[in-house]
Amino acid sequence: MKVQTGYLYHIKDEFFNVVNDNSLMTNHERGKKRPTYFTIKDKNILWFIPLSSKIDKYKNIVNSKMEKYGRCDTILIREILGKDSAILLQNAFPTLEKYIDHAHLLDNGKPAKVIESLKEEILQNFEYLLKLKSKGINLFFTDIDRIKTLMLEELKNSDK
Q1: pLDDT digits (tens, 9 = 90+) for 126-159
Q2: Which pLDDT tens digit goes with each residue over 104-115?
Q3: Cβ–Cβ contacts within 10 Å for residue 69, how many?
Q4: Answer CATH for 8-158 from 3.10.129.130, 1.20.1640.10, 3.10.450.50, 3.40.50.300
Q5: What's the pTM?
Q6: Cβ contacts of residue 98 below 8 Å, gap of 6+?
């Protein structure tokens, strides 16, 4: 499978067993697969950013952050594939291609991707959050450093 930035994927349960992190989004909700993830390819690491259809819940959070800080860089509410989605940058985490279960497919069977302008907006916000983290301001819910280390160790061990 050719994994590309800006496309949407689903992840295998195995990943969540390997990383064992309770701060990651819940497993299956109402019989559905885990959330759909916007994906950023960064060399051998993939960054997965969950999408949620719980718009009212996340609009309230965005509004609260806007009132308090004048901005919200951790959640974007945007249209994806014709529906409003909450793009949860705060819940991003690194993974590996081997943990992708499948690409999210359109009705015509082609892999789903976001429009270019939204892809760029997500990438800018994500890079900004990583820059803040490097300066000691961590807005990510998961321990992305620990998970990235686990994933890099896995890669290293698979090369032996």
Answers
A1: 999 999 999 999 999 999 999 999 999 998 988 7
A2: 999 999 999 999
A3: 9
A4: 3.10.129.130
A5: 0.92
A6: none
